[in-house]
Design brief:
152 residues, mainly alpha, 0% strand
Length: 152
């Protein structure tokens, strides 16, 4: 099960990144061109948030099944000295949950805005903030905190 979760979490990461970048592109494109917020734009908003929530569920299951996290919490005194353990035990999960909350709030606010321009602007700003947080929290191969390959 752990290997399956590793694969799913890694794969879904790319779906989250692609959907967020596409949603941001659509939102700022719509904002600056004064387009109408169409049903297609609404679906992009909705599916971006949905994919992020799916990744959160997979991530939470992965977190509680991870041998590294189990070690971190059982041996906190020793593990807190390892940047990699602290990153996965506290930093990664905290930043990712924060990013998903920001995506959720941005999606809900954009959905309720009265004008098309406000919907695009709201979605673009909130999703951009979430994307920045996600970029910081991903254990990229070049990350100084903890690194993992692009695909697992």
């Amino acid at each position: 099960m752990y290997q399956t979760l590793t694969f799913l979490h890694s794969l879904t990461r790319w779906l989250v990144l692609i959907s967020l970048m596409y949603a941001i592109y659509c939102s700022f494109g719509g904002y600056f061109s004064n387009r109408k917020f169409t049903e297609a734009d609404n679906k992009v908003r909705h599916w971006t948030a949905t994919i992020a929530h799916i990744q959160l569920v997979i991530g939470m299951i992965f977190y509680f099944k991870s041998p590294m996290i189990q070690y971190f919490w059982k041996n906190f005194i020793e593990a807190k000295d390892s940047l990699e353990h602290v990153f996965f035990g506290l930093i990664h999960i905290s930043l990712m949950i924060t990013a998903i909350i920001i995506i959720t709030i941005g999606s809900a606010l954009a959905k309720r805005k009265p004008s098309d321009k406000e919907q695009f602007k709201t979605m673009g700003i909130w999703f951009s903030i979430a994307l920045i947080i996600i970029f910081i929290a991903i254990p990229w191969p070049f990350s100084p905190f903890a690194n993992r390959p692009y695909f697992r």
